[in-house]
Amino acid sequence: MNVDNNTDWRKLWLQQRNHFKATIYNNKFIPQKPFGRQARFLIYPSEEAFYGGQAGGGKSSALLMSALQYVEEKHIPEGHDKLKYNALIIRRTLEDLDMPNAIMDRAKQWLLPKEDEGLLVWKDQKKRFIFNSGATLTFRYLSHNKHLNSYQGAELQFVGFDELTQFPENQYNYLHSRLRKLEDSDIPIRMRGASNPGGIGHDWVKKRFVDDNAKLPFIPSAYTDNKYLNQTEYSKQLDKLDELTRLQLKYGDWNAVLKSGLLVSRNQLNNAVISYQNTYNTWQPSFCTIGIDPASTGSDKFAMSCLVYFNNGNIVLVDLDSTPSAYPEELLRNFIIRNSHWRPYIINFEQEPGSDSAYALKHWQTILRDLVKKYGITVKNTQTSHSKYNRARPTANMIRQNRLFFDDRINSEKLRSLFNQYVYVHPDKEVMKEYPSPDELDSLGYAFMEIQKVIRL
Ligand SMILES: Nc1ncnc2c1ncn2[C@@H]1O[C@H](COP(=O)(O)OP(=O)(O)O)[C@@H](O)[C@H]1O
Ligand SMILES: [Mg+2]
């Protein structure tokens, strides 16, 4: 929830002023003086807070300031000789961490002169500052779930995600679970995020912090607040971006979406939504298939599509579901049962490469044995060397020809995900890394493959 307008900042400022001066303004490790919105983000007294929107709004600086808030010696609790405050700042990739003037580089600009003064040491290998108080500030990248293993025993007091929308929610949640309050100390535990809109985590970040009904605080950032930028020049630079990126970075627009992709436009997709009652209850169903994209990595979803071919040559996606859960068995069984009146004759799983695939197929055949028998369904898998983009092509063609439709009773959030995937799916793998895995789209592709075999579309 945007707390910028509905917080009594004057009151909060009066409460926090002394603390702010002591821990930020007069902090010898923080050379920049926060401007208004940064200060709001810094004094907001909640365990989680998110600063986001426009680029250039001083997000990385604010995040670094908040991490450094409690590293000074004066925070060593009475009766202790060291401060156990450990702060962690995360970026998505090693390259992101290493970029000039990105957050770790900025920390080096701020802090390495203090190493010369003997106030801290920088451990290059570990990418860690160790302050004389005993406090630490570590920089890491987190491009894969397996990187989480190294945090198993970790106890942290501050975790900051820079460019939070580049991460899946489970990684944020996992590190959140590593926060521990320090004994004998008033230092609060904090999770802080900063980000522009866009990126693979856009949806969950928006839902968690930005939407009106989100529970957690969001403070919008604006480059027009940042008097240290040459704003005219910066605005011109942002104008050179493509329309979507400009809406996201220049205007911090959380609702900006791509109007059209390489395969199909958003208009064509919206026009393909039809109602059973008004449109296709008179069509004769011919046969039905279910396609499955099983989740392979931690951030993927298990997605399933139920597709029906009608005698008039049209096809309708009658049902679509997905889950991030690692245990989708029950959901799939329900999916089959609720669509059994369409008489699905094949369930086609995407076959993962590798020797586990035979085992996976057996697993599903066993789990579904009673349903398979009852409804006469075949459970199979298909391996494909096609890219996700090529897999989406045939169904996109059908949409453009007004032959593939979407039932309007499909869960609107799932349908929205599917449509977004049609628009952002791209032949370049590097481009695809910016977006969530198009699992719903893939499951539809696997259902369509089996229809294609029969009718040779
Ligand atoms: N309070 C501040 N005082 C001085 N310079 C600042 C301050 N906040 C940000 N800047 C500078 O403005 C530029 C943009 O800030 P940055 O934190 O990178 O923005 P964002 O992460 O939102 O894109 C950087 O060069 C940064 O050092
Ligand atoms: Mg930044």
Number of strands: 15
State the helical fraction: 25-40%
Q: What strand order characterises the main sheet?
A: 3-4-5-2-6-7-1-8
Query: β content, as a range?
Result: 15-25%
- CA-based shape: elongated
CATH topology of the largest domain: Rossmann fold
Multimer state: single chain
Number of helices: 18
> What's the CATH architecture name of the largest domain?
3-Layer(aba) Sandwich
Mean pLDDT: 94
Q: Which hetero compounds are present in the coordinates? A: adenosine-5'-diphosphate, magnesium ion
How many independent structural domains? Answer: 2
Distance between the termini: 48 Å
CATH class of the largest domain: Alpha Beta
CATH superfamily of the largest domain: P-loop containing nucleotide triphosphate hydrolases
Largest sheet: 8 strands, mixed
Structural class: alpha/beta
Based on CA atoms alone, the radius of gyration comes out at 26 Å
Identify low-pLDDT runs.
none
